[in-house]
Design a protein that fits this description.
The protein is an alpha/beta fold and 242 residues long. It is 40% helix and 16% strand. It binds nicotinamide-adenine-dinucleotide. Residues 11-12, 14-18, 36-38, 53-55, 80-83, 104-105, 108, 131, 133, 176, 178-179, 181-184 line the site of nicotinamide-adenine-dinucleotide. Pfam families: adh_short_C2.
Amino acid sequence: MCFSDKLVIVSGSSSGIGKACAETLLESEAMVIGIDSDNNSIEHPKYIHYSVDVREDEKIAAITNEVHSKYGNIAGLVNAAGIFSHSKPFFDLGIDEWNDVIETNLTGVFILSKYVAQKMIPNKSGKIVNISCIRSKIYKPHMTEYAAAKGGVVALTSAMALDLAPYHIMVNSVAPGFTYTGMTAKSFEHPELRKSSEDLIPAGRIAEPKDIANVVLFLLSDKADYINGETIFADGGYSILK
Ligand SMILES: NC(=O)c1ccc[n+]([C@@H]2O[C@H](COP(=O)([O-])OP(=O)(O)OC[C@H]3O[C@@H](n4cnc5c(N)ncnc54)[C@H](O)[C@@H]3O)[C@@H](O)[C@H]2O)c1
């Protein structure tokens, strides 16, 4: 797939899945704008980094304006910034802990998508890909705020897709299974924990970030021009095993 000189914005680009999406896009000749609360971790002539929190509505609006006026049409957006749950039963969660995850994983997707969509609409084309999770559908204890946010991302994806369909802008999401990233490294570096997770995956292995980035790239490409409002589970078959 070639994205030659197409401009794509990627949130969460300093680590894990977002970073793999940014790097895979750069390999495919795209120009990438990275947005992450952390510092830049990609050195490439066609990569520009903004250190900003996706929850900061006014800053995200200003960055989107700046990117559009400096570099022109925005062809794609990947919403990959996210944090994990606080790993507690919901009745022990503080309101700040709840808000933390909902605002980062769900409201952050709304904010960035809103300002990017406003730039895509006059151009009548564009692709938005949101990163959800298997926890939007298959639940485990002590993950309520994370599951609610990721289920929200699936719903938000389909609802935004309907608002943007008249402008030929497609919105889809990818729901990864267990993926080896900064978020999960502690668990998967532990051989027994890794094995117990791998035993649950029909494909027999934890995903690498690149496995997820490949699906994101497909959804950003013109090969996916007729897919809209969908969530693709990229989980090695985890969610279909009964
Ligand atoms: N790793 C997995 O197994 C897995 C599985 C399913 C879904 N996901 C989802 O994939 C996405 C990426 O996670 P990852 O596993 O690559 O984790 P990661 O920790 O490696 O990367 C997440 C990135 O998001 C950035 N970020 C966090 N909060 C932010 C904020 N408020 N504003 C801007 N940037 C922020 C972090 O700085 C980091 O660079 C997340 O939405 C996560 O929920 C991960």
